[in-house]
Amino acid sequence: MSPATANVQAPLTLALSKGRIFEETLPLLEAAGIQVSENPESSRKLILPTSDPGLRLIIVRASDVPTYVQYGAADFGIAGKDVLFEHAAQHPGGLYQPIDLNIAKCRLCVAVREGFDYEAAVGQGSRLRVATKYVQAAREHFARKGVYVDLIKLYGSMELAPLVGLADAIVDLVSTGGTLRANHLMEVEEIAHISSRLIVNQASLKTRAQALQPLIDAFAKATADK
Ligand code: PRT
Ligand code: MG
């Protein structure tokens, strides 16, 4: 078999993160007639077969999905706009983003300790200390407002930062608001609505269009039908 033939027959690889994105992608795959029998929460496997021999899944960290797709280790993937925005700042271009799947919805917000006078702090023109995992989005937001900020990069549990004096404010994702409430924080500004998009490797789109396009179309249809 020539290498070219082998390539055509290799299954397409879809990169997903476990948790909400995996859970909310399953119905979209099912609408396309594809079942996944293993659950990454209980299985330790990082490569999961599907009922379609032409498609396999790889399970990676949410923020690594664009990297796998950009380098072609996955033909396509699903990632939140929060993740895509941070990725694009480091790697402009490179990813085709054909469909907003409208899944894993939340919003990117500024939050502070209950009782903290955010408007006054911003109005005084003093530098605000802001802790976040979303440094690019936060930098753009405060630059647009003309507010000086010192950004502190964190990798998780942002909600803790204002409680222990690490920061005045956080920029974080909120869905139900339960985590903010449980930690006596309040939302003071909404920066963006977030949902997840299908992202596709540019080269795969050209060389594997025959296999890939029907799946892209099926995702588009399943999303529109929801
Ligand atoms: O967990 P890990 O560090 O591996 O990565 P991750 O947190 O980026 O992954 P994951 O699977 O938690 O989230 C994947 C994607 O889901 C994100 O990139 C978002 O696009 C989307 N999403 C939707 C969310 C939420 N809703 C969400 N609520 N991602 C995170 N959260 C967190 C939020 O950061 C906060 O800590 O949930 C908490 C708030 O939730 P509520 O319901 O209490 O408001
Ligand atoms: Mg998480």
UniProtKB/TrEMBL annotation:
Enzyme class, spelled out: transferase
A Pfam family of this chain: HisG
ATP phosphoribosyltransferase catalytic domain span: 61-219
GO molecular function per UniProt: ATP binding; ATP phosphoribosyltransferase activity
Keywords in alphabetical order: Amino-acid biosynthesis, ATP-binding, Cytoplasm, Glycosyltransferase, Histidine biosynthesis, Nucleotide-binding, Transferase
GO cellular component: cytoplasm
Catalysed conversion reaction: 1-(5-phospho-beta-D-ribosyl)-ATP + diphosphate = 5-phospho-alpha-D-ribose 1-diphosphate + ATP
InterPro entries named in the record: ATP_PRibTrfase_cat, ATP_PRibTrfase_CS, ATP_PRibTrfase_HisG, ATP_PRibTrfase_HisG_short
Main localization category: cytoplasm
Localisation: Cytoplasm
EC number: 2.4.2.17
One GO BP: L-histidine biosynthetic process
Pathway linked to the protein: Amino-acid biosynthesis; L-histidine biosynthesis; L-histidine from 5-phospho-alpha-D-ribose 1-diphosphate: step 1/9
Family of the protein in this entry: Belongs to the ATP phosphoribosyltransferase family. Short subfamily.
Protein purpose: Catalyzes the condensation of ATP and 5-phosphoribose 1-diphosphate to form N'-(5'-phosphoribosyl)-ATP (PR-ATP). Has a crucial role in the pathway because the rate of histidine biosynthesis seems to be controlled primarily by regulation of HisG enzymatic activity.
Subunit comment: Heteromultimer composed of HisG and HisZ subunits.
Entry note about domains: Lacks the C-terminal regulatory region which is replaced by HisZ.
Protein name, entry field: ATP phosphoribosyltransferase
Gene name, Swiss-Prot/TrEMBL: hisG
